């Protein structure tokens, strides 16, 4: 009996193994890497999926292993009354099953963003295949056009979006963050804007090259897109929301100081926003602390001299303050609190927020924004003196 015990144990354990009961073969799935959503003139939803269909290449015979290769992507679109309806219509066109957990980006066209975004969020929250860390982006044209873009270097458009999001000079919003914006008190939603733009390099064949680029952000009031901010205005939002991680700032030196330009890169940045009552309105106090490294000096100013260094710091200070004020004016213009001023008031003085929450967005026009930046240049590079012409 003792000798047969191991055999019985092995047989018993084998009964618990499921083997390939619910296997998902890579040759049976169409992997979704990006999703595009548009509202048609008929009112129906148009859903576009960017598929990366893996195929096995190389030696797959006995004794040899194959490798998976991804194509540059294939965009398939269809429409429906709901997202799920459109998904089913797309599935009918495909010989493989739609596989959604690898979706990296959700691009929303202006036509849908200006109608009702809340109507589409239910699907993504409810579906068990949704990747909540997918990026959410707006585009001024059709979302399907963004997905159809053919990259020159990356294999998939989703890869370009992921790389663009790595820079510290753009807002980046994931799906879970986007949903939370609608649930939080005192803040309106926003998302980065992506467009197809002319490339900054020229083709030897004189072909017109294009590239995908984040060109600012779209801001909402309630559940509808209300307006756009360009790239410079978006930088102001990053300062306001304490989300500036990196970025280059270039300032012009006045002619009376010799002219030229100086560029510095943000190394550290910290922002603080406070709201206080002032009569029937509010004062929004913004304070910024940042450290810069100088990377280029095209002016005749010697940065080893303290007075010149202090002067250049003041130029960077005014540049940052102007960016922030420009973003604040956009919030007043669109009457939408994407900055989160109401959120700050709610967290610090909930009683005051309760009194003024009605008509809050409209009251932004009466707010007084007081912005102050403190800039400290830490390093000026390997040389102190600029290169000048020999006398």
From TrEMBL:
Keywords of this entry: Germination, Lipoprotein, Membrane, Palmitate, Signal
Keyword Lipoprotein on entry: yes
GO CC annotations, alphabetized: membrane
One of the Pfam families matching this protein, by short name: Spore_GerAC
Record domain Spore germination protein N-terminal: where: 23-196
GO terms, biological process: spore germination
Source organism superkingdom: Bacteria
Localization: Membrane
Primary location class: membrane
Membrane topology, record value: Lipid-anchor
Domain Spore germination GerAC-like C-terminal: 215-381
InterPro entries found in the cross-reference section: GerAC_N, Spore_GerAC-like, Spore_GerAC-like_C, Spore_GerAC_C_sf
Homology family: Belongs to the GerABKC lipoprotein family.
Name under which the protein is recorded: Ger(X)C family spore germination protein
């Amino acid at each position: 009996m003792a000798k047969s015990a191991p055999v019985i144990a092995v047989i018993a354990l084998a009964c618990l193994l499921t083997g390939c009961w619910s296997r998902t073969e890579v040759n049976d799935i169409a992997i979704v890497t990006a999703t595009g959503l548009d509202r048609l003139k008929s009112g129906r939803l148009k859903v576009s999926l960017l598929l990366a269909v893996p195929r096995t290449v190389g030696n797959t015979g006995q004794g040899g292993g194959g490798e998976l290769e991804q194509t540059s992507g294939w965009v398939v679109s269809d429409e429906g009354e709901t997202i799920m309806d459109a998904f089913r219509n797309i599935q009918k066109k495909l010989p493989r099953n739609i596989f959604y957990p690898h979706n990296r980006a959700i691009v929303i066209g202006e036509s849908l963003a200006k109608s009702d975004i809340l109507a589409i969020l239910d699907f993504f929250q409810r579906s068990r295949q949704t990747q909540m860390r997918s990026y959410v982006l707006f585009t001024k044209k059709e979302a399907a056009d963004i997905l159809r873009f053919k990259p020159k270097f990356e294999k998939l458009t989703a890869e370009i979006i992921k790389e663009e999001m790595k820079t510290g000079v753009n807002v980046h919003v994931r799906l879970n963050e986007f949903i939370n914006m609608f649930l939080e008190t005192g803040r309106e939603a926003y998302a980065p804007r992506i467009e197809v733009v002319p490339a900054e390099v020229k083709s030897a064949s004189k072909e017109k090259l294009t590239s995908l680029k984040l060109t600012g952000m779209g801001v909402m009031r309630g559940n509808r897109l209300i307006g756009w901010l360009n790239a410079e205005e978006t930088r102001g939002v990053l300062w306001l929301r304490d989300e500036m991680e990196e970025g280059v700032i270039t300032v012009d030196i006045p002619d009376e100081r010799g002219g030229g330009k100086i560029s510095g890169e943000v190394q550290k940045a910290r922002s603080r926003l406070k709201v206080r009552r002032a009569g029937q309105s509010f004062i929004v106090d913004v304070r910024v602390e940042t450290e810069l490294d100088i990377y280029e000096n095209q002016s005749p100013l010697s940065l080893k001299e303290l007075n010149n260094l202090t002067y250049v710091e003041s130029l960077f200070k005014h540049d940052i303050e102007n960016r922030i004020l420009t973003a604040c004016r956009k919030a007043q213009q669109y009457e939408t609190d994407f900055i989160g001023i109401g959120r700050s008031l709610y967290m610090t003085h909930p009683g005051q927020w309760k009194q003024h929450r009605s008509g809050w967005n409209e009251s932004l026009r009466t707010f007084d924004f007081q912005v102050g930046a403190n800039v400290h240049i830490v390093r000026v590079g390997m040389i102190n003196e600029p290169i000048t012409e020999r006398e």
